[in-house]
Amino acid sequence: MGQTLAVVIGSNSPIGRCLVSRLSQIRVRVLSEPSFSDAAALTASLRGVDVVFHLTSSATSDGRPASDLAHVNHVLMESAYLAEVGCIVHSSPATAMGFTDRADLVRDESSLSRRRMSSSDRLWHDAEEATLEFGNWTGLSVVAVRHAMPITPLSETGSLADNPIRSAMSGVLPRVFDGGLTVAHVQDLADGHVLAWRRGRSGESYILGGQRVEIPSYVRLITDLCPVNRADQAVRSKSARWWPRWKFPVVGSFQDQSPLTWDDLEDQYAWFTCQKGIKELGYHDRSVEESILEVTERMSGNLHRRHAA
Questions:
Q1: To 5 degrees, how large is the angle CA 106–CA 108–CA 110?
Q2: Which of 123, 157, 235, 253 has the greatest number of CB atoms lying within 10 Å of its CB?
Q3: pLDDT digits (tens, 9 = 90+) for 171-185
Q4: Domains detected in the chain
């Protein structure tokens, strides 16, 4: 029996890096990320590959126009079919389902309304829908996952979930208001992608969720767990941005890719349930407390090393 081969498209993203590491631990050889400039060469590079993980959120963070997502997705699916790839795991952020102003609304895989989506969300939705339809039409095994907002200890740029932790480590906290997010440790999300490949049903979508946290409780928890001087903490101004270089467009258009302000989340909720993933995939996630502590420990260690240097 030959070695299991995998390709991770978006391997430089936080989830992608953890996924590559996880695959190597279970003795899956991860091939170099292919080029999409030549369809024939792409098909040739995918021959013999058992699984392709397509992390579509990376399409908006690597310098390429976000409109390329549809083209890349189309070329990939055709090449994977011609190369007889074993399985495609199509990944997108759960927040592409959109935010709502309802604190009582917890959505599942069926809670999708294209009419309520922004233009950016529609691109992700359409890409997932096209992928599933292609698989149904051709017989190619396709599993779709929508992941919660990752808490990323190893990320240099951070995400919507862990940038407030980084701010707290610097003695600065964001303004507190009503709102909510579903967050999960990035390693748990990477493990969920592997489970989707091994246990997911072709043609199905799975939410890889985590804990639903209210913004006030999340900020309070960060304050309690971050090793900073409480007297030095200040409230950020309403115009301040968390991440000046982050280009993950949760709300707004792909075209401008402008960073979100903290205020954009006021009275907005992105709450999802992962019960289907738990039941069918065996997915599980660690507590948000564990995730925050790991981020702060990593950052504290990095700061100590920098000072020592």
A1: 130
A2: 123
A3: 777 678 898 889 999
A4: 5-216+247-308 (3.40.50.720)
